[in-house]
Write the structure tokens for this entry.
Amino acid sequence: MFKKLQFKMTLYYSLILIAILLITNMSIYFLLVKYNNYQMTSEISRMLESIQGSEWLYEDPSDNEDSSDDDNDKHDKFKVPEVKDLIIPQTIKTFPFYMIYNTSDQMVTWKSDNDALFDTLVIKSSDLKISDNPKIVPLEVPSKLFYLMAKMPITINNKTLGYYVVSSDVTIAYQTLSNLSKILFLSLIAGILVSTVLGYILAGKSLRPIKEAYLSKQEFLANASHELKTPLSVILLSTETLKGEINASFQFQRQVVLGIEDEAQKMNHLVSQLLFLSRTDSHTASIKYEHFNISESISNEIIAFEKIAQAKGIELSHAITPGLKLNGDRKQLISVFAILLDNAIKYSNDNGKVYVTLEKNKDNNNQGVKLTVKDTGIGIPETELKHVFERFYRFESSRSKETGGYGLGLAIAKEIIDQHKGTILVNSIDKVGTTFIVEL
């Protein structure tokens, strides 16, 4: 029981710690992404400022050929320069890569800090549109690199002479983000393992006082139940002796002794039940397996209950398949049947019916047996069905007091069936009746 509870608490503690770790890591990751985006935005802004601050100039060759011509002659000789004659702005020269094209898409001049990347950048630049904002371009050469590229027109005197492409390496920002993401992921995996261990330790420490108190209670219950058996046995033996000694004419004294005997028997039964449950909880209860004829044992038990049923005017019928055998603790399994049959008779209305069947378990390919105890009693509301196997649970406590129940019988029955790896189910309709089904 405590192992299952510790497992559940470990799961809860671990999930809480993992959730905190996950929220922290995700927050850090989003901050890193936001910072990386800020860096890229700043880099783009710097590139745009450099591009917009670039002024393309040229030197008119006619100034050197004939400086004596007048202004009108110079005007007549003026021609639109070619791209190759332009003076490249200093800001463009600061980029590690640039390519200058004429209007025919022919590369006129270029600069490259890495010839191995240059051809790839030329190919990538063909996908860019002129005058668009700079874009991040990924490269696979062979490791993954990231370059910020822009494609802008070359315009002089409102005439377009060509265009140019500039690029700048921004790989370091993405590599930093990638490395930090890996670190966060690895820390999350390590954190999950650490959280599981811490959750287990915290669950163990949290359960320690509860476990000690529970074991102390179980020990007290077992000792008290054991110690009560002896005086109860003495009381029962004494009442049995007194019944034989009291004169038949002393009716009052006889009734007192019978009352003491009845209450002592009830107390003895309760102590036996408590002792069984305490042994079950402490895993000291032993199961004596034997191969026995369950059909014969249940038939004998039905005969013992027939007089009780007749006293209430209850019709007790049965259909027992003969010769069915089972491997288990005979005494415990028969006590389960006795509990179910006793409850069926107790909670059946006067002149009601109780029906018992024992057959091969057809739902399990005839492997094992199926026991059914059905009554036409007070029934159990659907909302209460989930509680019937709980200890000390009693539906209609006033009625239970009349019948002498303590709410332990069905709990004991379930413990025994669970120990035998079987199942016990209940179906009931309020005010109509209840059916218990045991499969072994």
